[in-house]
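Exam revision sheet. Question 4 asks you to relate a sequence to its structure. Input first:
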Amino acid sequence: MEAKLAGVCTPVFTSHPIRWLGLVALCSAYILSGVTKLMDFGSAVAEMERYGLLPGRPIAAVVILFQLTASAMVISGFCRWIGSLSLAVFTVLATFIALRFWDMPLGQDRFMAMNAFFEHLGLAGAFLLVAWYDLHKWRRGEKDWS
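Answer key, structure tokens:
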């Protein structure tokens, strides 16, 4: 039964368009965040300062550039493993800065922050798997990074 199901699913879910859609979906929060921060730079600066990241203006600019560049690397395949590992580390760091649920009193806000915290760890794990896969391809001598 499993082999039959795998035989049906394999042509669809191993296709290049599905992989591309998966990579776009994986990076979508970073693309949206980067574009939104770019369109309203003042709010991006205020966000950095709210989390104690000073000076806010240059840090906001670097975050925007980083989010958009690393996402482009992951989606395009250009040094995908570097972009993936970078976004994994960025996600973990940002999660520990922004979602400090352990400092919050019990209640709905803490529950939501805790859920978001672990969702972000899962997202970082997905980026680690993308990097793992690409590095395994490189190790085997497969140079197709697309």
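Marking note for examiners. The first helix runs from residue 2 to 13.
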